[in-house]
Amino acid sequence: MTQSVTDTATGTALSIRYGGDEPPIPEGSLAAMLRRQAAKFGDRPAMLVPQDSGGVAPITYAEMVGRAENVARWLRQRCEPGSRIAIWSRNAVESVIVQHACALAGMVVAHFNTGWTDAEVRHACDLVEPSLGFAGLGFRDADLLTRLAGIASFPVVPLTDVEAIGEIEQSGDLPDPGPDAPYLIQFTSGTTGKSKGALLSQKCVLYGGWIRPAVYGGNEYDVWLNAVPYHHIGGSIAIIVGALATGSAFTVLERYDRDQTVRLMREIRPSRMGGVPTMWHDILSSPDLPSDRAVRLVTLGGATVPPSIIRAVQDKTGATSAIGYGQSESGGITNTVLDDPIDKLCETIGRPSPHTEVMIADSETGQPVPLGQVGEICACSPGNMMRYWGNPEATAATIRPDLFLRTGDLGSMDEQGYVRFAGRLREVIIRGGENIYPAEVEDALLSHPGIALAAVVKVPHERLGHEVGAVVTLAPGAQADVAAFEEHAASQIAHFKVPRHWRVLDEMPLTVSGKIRKVELEALFEDQS
Fold first, then answer.
1. Which helix or strand (DSSP H or E) is residue 383 part of?
2. Do 505 and 473 contact (CB within 8 A), yes or no?
3. Closest of 425, 424, 428, 447 to residue 437, by C-alpha
4. How many CA atoms lie within 13 A of 475 on its CB side?
5. Residue 19 has what pLDDT?
6. What gap in Å lies between CA 211 and CA 222, rounded to an integer?
7. CA–CA dist 497, 469 (Å, integer)
8. If 0-12 CB within 10 Å is exposed, 13-18 middle and 19+ buried, where does residue 172 land?
9. CA-to-CA distance for 484 and 255, rounded, in angstroms?
10. What local confidence, expressed as pLDDT, does residue 4 receive?
């Protein structure tokens, strides 16, 4: 259920907000939530750690919070309140403990992307000026500890030391940071330009983790299985804090590995899974995919989700699919709900989340556009960031005077509040004066049975400004028949939107969080200009 916010003078709908009985947001800080859940669910598993011999080892809520409190006291002995604490590692139990310790100590945690170059890490260090860093292993067991120690001007501690620190009773009192205390610097993906650091408060992070389980009926009996990295908002908030908000357990996966994921589906029978479309494209193709229908919900996001993936998830796992939309700057902007029809899952990113108002605005004037028209998605939400760290200019350009956050994403909204995603603002292709939105073209291509994944980018053109380029990977057994692909697209979209430049790849270049690197794809067409 949604309700419109209208212009009283003209009666025009300006925005749509959630209009149902809104579930109450948990009170207090994230630190307070940690202590409440440890008291309530002390003996229940908070984390499940896969073992080399098979199965998982549980870490209870009492153990997790007890270790985090000891690490928090250790940090307070070395750093001032509000200090930034960096973590550079693939997913690990110790990363979760440090993240929770920062909440309890009143400090700010900053996860570094494991795919970053030394130059990108140096930029992050210069930006947030950590007082202390923890580092471990990266992709393919890369030694991130040695790399960070060679870059940083602050002490760097092996992440593996956290286990011992957490087991030793540390002295000292811990503060009550309060819900408005700065807590997490969430770096933007950095697919274009230098990464910015979105500063999120404790209550903002708590809202971002709580909102999805609240909408989808999560409870303490859930078991989560999701390999999204913790340096991504889907890991640091949606998984780590999402499970905490309901007192449920999540599985600590060092990295995404299809075979391990499928094996754990059989062994621990998770009730909740998630991830980006590229992960599920792999999982669904596994010959060992279990058929016991244990998974109740699969939450998809991070990119435009192909309808074929949504239907295959439901057909092959028996789970209900859900679509969630958010970003580093705001974790829970829209979502579908459990009883949404399949066409809403396939065609939209849902409606405004509880306590959230969404407006589609003209990107140049900032004024609301009529329902059904494409504009910039703007959100006023408890999940909105406080500011960009050390970047007042970018903050002023992103947070409007009316407190709506400019997402930089394009979409349209219907009278029921469903939002259709149209792509990034910078990705709009203007061909001879016609605006072309990549998401629409990608949807048309993905409806062809021979195309597994598709990404649409702009290709420079001397007379038209830009033309449409498509990069695709093929479905198993399919042939690269560009003429057939163009013919199929022409039956779905206007002729000027049909791609005329093509590249067929064995696999897409991806960020560590599974998003397609469109900047790299644009470079494939440089010889076309």
1. none
2. yes
3. 428
4. 15
5. 54
6. 15
7. 10
8. exposed
9. 37
10. 61
Tallying the residues shown for the chain, one arrives at 529
Pinpoint the alpha helices (H) of 269-421. 277-284, 307-317, 342-347, 392-398
| Interhelix angle 277-284/307-317, nearest 10 degrees | 40
CA 175 to chain CA centroid, Å, is: 30
Q: Give me the DSSP letters along 158-201.
A: ETTHHHHHHHSPPPS------TTSEEEEEE---SSSSPPEEEEE
Give the span between the Cα atoms of 127 and 386, in whole angstroms.
Answer: 16
Give me 474's structure tokens: 């093929």
- Domain 430-528 is found in CATH 3.20.20.60: no
Bridge partner list, 2: 18
Residue 104: half-sphere exposure toward Cβ, Cα within 13 Å: 27
SS3 297: strand
φ, ψ of residue 50 to 5 degrees: the values are -60, 140
The pair of structure tokens assigned to 208 is 């971002």
CB-CB neighbours of 386 under 10 Å: 16
Q: What is this structure's pTM? A: 0.85
- CA dist 277 → 251, 304, 312, 342, 430 (Å): 20, 8, 11, 17, 27
pLDDT digits 0-9 by tens, 50-93: 999 889 999 999 999 999 999 999 999 999 999 999 999 999 99
